[in-house]
Amino acid sequence: MEALPRETVVDALEGRLREDILNGRHEKGSYLPPERELSEGYGVTRTTLKHAFERLVQAGLLETRHGVGTRVRDYARLGGADLLPALIRHSPDWLREVFEVRRGIGSLIASRAAAKATVAQVAELRELLAAVREAEGGARAQLADIEVHRGLARATGNRVYVLLTNTLFNAYLPLRGALVAPFSDADAACERLRPVVEAVAAHDERAAHSAADAYLAATERIMLDELGAGR
């Protein structure tokens, strides 16, 4: 059986339209040209164009009004965090700002987890931490590390922190493969994160905040250095 192509025509068109929007070729607030004109210009069918539009509407870059047309959304004013993956694909410079928020939110989550974590949640965090050490390869250790942070968010007892954690991780998902350096040594990754879990287990809010800040600053520095070296 022949392998499917990695990128479909819809994928390619979505990417091209996204770049054209973010580069200002299609200005915010303006209506796109008629579908027939666009489909001919991009060399695709109108069905393909509609599928790409649906994705970009879902991403928050376009809005469609029945009988009127498709307009570029003022995403800078009206958009939400769900736009971050698209913005990071467009420009990795957004990553520094994501990391700044990640550090602030992550430290707060750790301190709240220290205040709220149950015995069962502390046990879960230790199991998740052990999974980081046991992971084979940087990519798997990276995913195991993410699960520790999801566990910390759950331990706050606040579901909004869980959603924020998911949002921040989803934001840099497009570049995740280029950000594995902090996790290439699973033992070191585990030990780097251990002070956060132990502070939460001790219900020491100040220590948890400090440990999370130190951890997030260290991994951010390594990941940005890795990304810079790869350019």
Q: Could you please describe the fold and organization of this structure?
A:
- The protein contains 11 helices and 2 strands.
- Helix 7 (119-134) packs antiparallel against helix 10, helix 8 (138-155) runs parallel beside helix 10 and helix 10 (186-201) runs antiparallel to helix 11.
- The protein starts with 8 loop residues before the first helix and ends with a helix.
- With 231 residues, the protein is mainly α.
- The longest helix is centred in the last third of the chain and has 26 residues, at 205-230.
Order of helices and strands: HHHEEHHHHHHHH
Number of helices: 11
Low-pLDDT residue spans: 1-6
Shape: elongated
Cα-atom Rg, whole angstroms? 21 Å
**First-residue to last-residue Cα separation:** 36 Å
Report the major sheet.
2 strands, antiparallel
SS class = mainly alpha
Oligomer: single chain
- What is the β-strand count? 2
What proportion of the residues is helical, as a percent range?
Answer: 55-70%
Instruction: Write down the overall mean pLDDT.
Output: 89
Tell me the strand percentage band.
under 5%
**Main sheet strand line-up:** 1-2
